[in-house]
Amino acid sequence: MIRKLAFCAILALALVGCDNEEEQILALKNEGKVLQQRVDSLRAELSKTQEVPVKWNIVNDTVRAGDGLFQVLNRMNINASERGKIVLAMQDSVELSSMKVGQVFYAAKDSSGSVQRFRYATNPATVHMLTRVDTNYVYNRVEKPVVRKLSIYEGTLAPGGTLNGTLLKVGIPRRMAGVVGGVLQCKVAFSQAQPGDRFRILLEDTFYQDSIWISGKVVYAEFEGRTVGHHEAFRYDDGDPKSSFNAHYTENGEALIFDGLRYPLDRLHITSPFGSRIHPITGQRKTHHGIDYGSPTGTPIYAVAEGTVTVSGYDEFSGNKIAIRHRDNSESWYMHMSVRGVSVGTHVAARQVIGKVGSTGRSTGPHLHLGFKNEKGAWINPASKTMIAAPKLTGERLARLKQQVAVARSQIEKTLAAPAVKANDSTEVMVRMIKL
Ligand SMILES: [Zn+2]
Predict the structure, then answer these.
(1) Can you tell me the distance from the alpha carbon of 323 to that of 311, in angstroms, rounded to the nearest whole number?
(2) 3-class SS of residue 369
(3) Helices 21-51/2-14 angle, 10° precision
(4) Stated pTM of the model
């Protein structure tokens, strides 16, 4: 194409007559300039097409009910070796156990069918990208700008009404209404709540492009009743989304989780949840009798509750393992430890350090396997027991909470200055909203 254009330019020059030489030379020069521009732009386009291989084939697949990453990658016809590398590159940065039905995975394959790029959006504003570099994949996270909004809901209990029922009627998502009820019930005896008792909650919602809801959290919840008294709950953010201290507390740092166990680690990165699963690399189905938390070797492991050590030993599958029997005769199990810190018969307190994270036994990398046996000796899901980081925040964390309480109070004040509207027709609840 470029050669052809150049040829045309020469031809045009040769056909020029001699009438008004200067004018014609000028015209030709202009024409030559235009042609040169076209040649340049064609060259640029050619080099662009060399940079972006047009032969890449984009394939995608959608998460279905019961899917693990293995099924999705399998349907995308990604070979076993690349499948393994993709899982490994993803699992350190992405909580794969929280894949949701309807989410879409994309892969760009080159002409040989090998995956060059891999893309997974956990929500419209958060995109996880893998790019092939030599034989491996490099992870990259793209965060698109989001809008955050605060809303305050205020109301009173109607005769025969409950707090949870009222919040659901208003259209607050079930999960968030559950959080409000869950934290307040640590302090409020709801069976003694009465009509006219007052509540106020502050929610923070995150939107993409102003209207696509991404996530929400309960920043503050307040209940004031004639007999149950006045109680407040504040959301505490420990500065790391995976911190086990992220929860609701009273202003003084008392944790608001009903009847809880403590977490075994300060930072929670679940690499494999409890239950039946298909191994992401081998494709074999088996039941996983615990939760795997990925964590660096040497990270301290805490007892999830007070109890007596019943096992402290080693076997080729579990590696270094410890079991602790608790007051209700349930047992917590800790496996693959690099160091065991307690021996059989030792009495341990909740949150006492009992060992360190490792990769002993049958393990592909440093992690803690936490198992839980009920009083009959059957494995149960540790996540089915409510977990709690610490019953009370102290020191730096308490100071941090106090700062966040002050921020929440000023947010409440600002939001209360916005005009109030009735949340809907079926309740008397009022809502006020501002952009953050
Ligand atoms: Zn495990």
Answers:
(1) 5
(2) strand
(3) 180
(4) 0.74
Cα 363 to averaged position of ligand 1 atoms, centre (Å)? 8
How many whole angstroms separate alpha carbon 190 and alpha carbon 163? Answer: 8
What the block records as the tokens of 355 is 């060992």
Residue 208's H or E segment, with its range, is: strand 198-208
Question: What spacing in Å lies between the alpha carbon of 364 and ligand 1's midpoint?
Answer: 10
Distance CA 158, CA 428 (A): 9
CA distance 160 to 196: 10
Cα(318) to ligand 1 centroid in Å equals 9
- Given 3-state DSSP classes, what are the helix, strand and coil percentages for the chain, each rounded to the nearest 5? 25, 35, 35
Give 257-283 pLDDT, tens digit per residue: 876 789 999 999 998 888 887 766 677
How far apart are the two ends of the chain, measured CA to CA in Å? 55
Q: Are 426 and 155 in contact, with CB atoms under 8 Å apart?
A: no
CB atoms within 10 A of CB 403: 9
> What's the rounded Cα separation, in Å, for the pair 412 and 436?
12
| 194 and 157 Cβ atoms separated by less than 8 Å | yes
Residue 337 in contact with residue 360, Cβ under 8 Å? yes
pLDDT tens digits, residue range 113-145? 999 999 999 888 999 999 999 888 999 999 999
How would you list the strands of the sheet with 229-236, edge to edge? 247-249, 229-236, 212-225, 198-208, 146-156, 430-435, 421-422
Q: How far, in Å, from the CA of 60 to the mean position of ligand 1?
A: 30
| DSSP designation for 383 | G
272 Cα: distance to centroid of ligand 1 (angstroms): 7
Low-confidence residues of the chain: pLDDT under 70? 1-29, 32, 35, 38-39, 42-54, 259, 279-281
* Sheet strand arrangement including 353-356: 300-302, 353-356, 339-340
Q: Both tokens of residue 48?
A: 């662009």
**Tokens standing for 107?**
């892969």
- Sole residue written with tokens 């002050």: 406
Report the separation in Å between the CA atom of 365 and the middle of ligand 1, taken as the mean of its atom positions.
11
Determine the distance separating the centroid of ligand 1 and the alpha carbon of 242, expressed in angstroms: 19
For residue 419, the CA-to-ligand 1 centroid distance in Å is: 52
**How many whole angstroms from 258 Cα to the centroid of ligand 1?**
27
Task: Count the Cβ atoms, other than its own, within 10 Å of residue 223.
Answer: 25
Q: How far does the centroid of ligand 1 lie from the alpha carbon of residue 383, in Å?
A: 14
Q: How far is the CA of 325 from the centre of ligand 1 (A)?
A: 20
